[in-house]
Amino acid sequence: MTSDAVSRVPEPVDEVVREYGPGSAERAALERRVDELVAAAGPLPMVIGGERRFGGGERVAVVQPHHHAARLGEYGNATREDAKAAVAAALAAGPEWRSLGYQDRAAVLLRAAELLAGPWRATVVAATVLGQSLTVRQAELEVCALVDGWRRAVAQGRELLAEQPASAPGEWRRADIRPLAGFVHAVSPAVSTAAAGLLPTLPALLGNTVVWRPAPAQTLAAHHLAELLAAAGLPPGVVNLLTGDGQPSTQVLLAEPALAGVHGPAAELPGLWPALAARPGGPPRVVGAPDGGAFLLAHPGAEPAAVRSALLRGAFEHRGPAAPAIARAHLPRGLWRLIAEELLAEVDALPVGDVTDLTNFLGALPDRAAFDRATALIERAKADPAVELVAGGQYDDAIGWFVRPTVLLCPDPAHELFRHGCPGPVLAVHAYEDWEQALAAAAASPYAPAGVLLARDRGAIASAVEWLRFAADALHVNDRPVAVAPVEGLRAWARTRTVREEFGPPAGHRYAHLG
To answer: 11 lies in a domain?
Structure first.
């Protein structure tokens, strides 16, 4: 039974990032949890209707990307039958989940945020470090972004419910914010734990039930997120977890008549369009979460040390949507000449290796596919006379999927490096002569999840902010991209019904002009 109270949700407060310095309590707790997860290397089952069971397909080992001979566990590839069972569980859970008031659904996410910020923090950070080869710093940022995302989503959901239409005298118009009719299929990427937590739970917050398939490389962290949601009180069947590459199960899910929506990384959704468009009733609602590489644009008057720091940290310390890596940079030629020697020496000196060694600046790519994409780009660049390899370019998959931080210099801002972005720790640099042409080039590049503007001149900042208005979801002025989990797509997971009640209904059918 829901309460008639108009509740006020807690004001979202950003989670404080922990530093994990030598001798700190959080570092000791994390190191213990890393050792425990490595020693456990247990089964990583699906979760369907609250039941934990192995997928019926091929058994696949989950490994550490930086040490791919070391197993973290094993999952079973979800089959067509598993997908059908997950759909049935989601549809069965729908009526009861929808019947709960918003405050009850929101309480589950707020409880999950508190658990993740507290007793579950070390577990999810450790799983992200081991399973996705993110450094401790970046794994911590992912966890904080997820905590913040859940808290912000609850606040934004309350604001959405409070949006009501105006009523004329003698009537009452009210908006009924309803979930979609059916279930939502959520697909989460390999590199971001924050995205993995938000993609299935944002639709659930508004009353939808979900079939969730994380990327295989994200299975370890996804497993612990599913356990965390259960501990937070999420009822069975609201979010159902399928493991595996998705090839058999996706066919079933996309053809299912009850499919109401798809939520996933924007880059992965185009591959689903043929199947979605062929559905008899037309495609369901599709919402793409921002992903891909960010860009950096430096003004000729930018502080050289700030540019160097933003490039080193922004391009090479992270690879995920919660804090997108800078993949392309537009720098004034004079500034490039000034910082190039020191910057490239620092790039070549960045320590790369096992991320459980906290002295390493970055780890391995999350899986073989990501490694192959990055190395293929590097080899094309080496063979391209229009591109100069100025740092890095080495890679090795003997122990882990390692790619050295790489910088490519190209004079043409229309080159594929700037049109399609660079996978892995690869940065493309365009050294420009003219500021306005650089502005136009940055604005004309493919839409990015984030952009960085470095400048000291206020007029240049104001002009660039306007030029780049449609270039990115977020623009960071004089800072690199930071871990922020976007929740702007929350509105897409509801349908609005307007209820209009007339308090004095007409008694006749004749209008005044009829006489």
So the answer is: no
Whether 175 contacts 463, CB under 8 Å: no
Q: Does any domain span residue 9? A: no
| Of residues 136, 106, 131, the one with CA closest to residue 12 | 106
Across 2-79, the runs of DSSP E, i.e. the strands, are 46-48, 51-53, 59-64, 67-76
Task: Judge whether 507 lies within some domain.
Answer: no
CATH no. for residue 377?
Answer: 3.40.309.10
The SS3 assignment for 177 reads strand
Residue 186 vs residues 70, 152, 197, 214: alpha-carbon distances, Å:
29, 20, 10, 8
Pairing of strands 294-298, 448-454: parallel
Return averaged pLDDT per consecutive 10 residues of the chain, 515 residues in all: 74 96 98 98 97 97 98 98 99 98 97 99 99 96 95 96 94 95 95 94 98 97 99 99 93 95 85 83 84 90 97 84 79 98 98 97 95 96 98 98 97 92 90 96 87 97 96 90 70 93 89 86
In a shared domain, residues 120 and 253: yes
Task: Say what the pLDDT of residue 486 is.
Answer: 61
Structural domain of 323:
294-477
* Per-residue model confidence (pLDDT) at position 401: 98
Asked if 332 contacts 299 with a C-beta cutoff of 8 angstroms, the reply is yes
Number of compact structural domains in the chain: 2
In a domain, 123, yes or no: yes
Q: What pLDDT shows up at residue 14?
A: 93
Statement to judge: residues 251 and 310 lie in one domain: no
| 198 and 340 both lie in a single domain | no
State residue 226's pLDDT score: 99
**Identity (one letter) of the amino acid at 461?**
I
DSSP string, 102-168: HHHHHHHHHHHHHHHHTTTHHHHHHHHHHHH---HHHHHHHHHHHHHHHHHHHHHHHHHHH------
Q: Do residues 401 and 303 share a domain? A: yes
> Which residues are bridge partners to 285 per DSSP?
261
Q: Determine the Cα angle at 450 with ends 447 and 451, to 5°.
A: 90
Do residues 67 and 147 share a domain?
yes
Nearest residue to 196 (alpha-carbon basis) of 160, 237, 145, 162: 145
Domain match, 272 and 302 both = no
**Which pLDDT belongs to residue 280?**
82
Considering only CA atoms, which of 290, 234, 283 is closest in space to residue 50?
234
Q: For residue 247, what is the domain's CATH number?
A: 3.40.605.10
Residue 175 CB contacts under 8 Å (≥ 6 apart), including other chains: 163, 164, 165, 496, 497, 498, 499
Retrieve residue 398's tokens: 């003997």
- Pair (284, 430) in one structural domain: no
Cα(346)–Cα(348) distance, integer angstroms: 5
Are residues 423 and 493 both part of a single domain? Answer: no
Q: Coil, helix or strand for 180?
A: coil
- In whole angstroms, give the CA distance from residue 350 to residue 359: 10
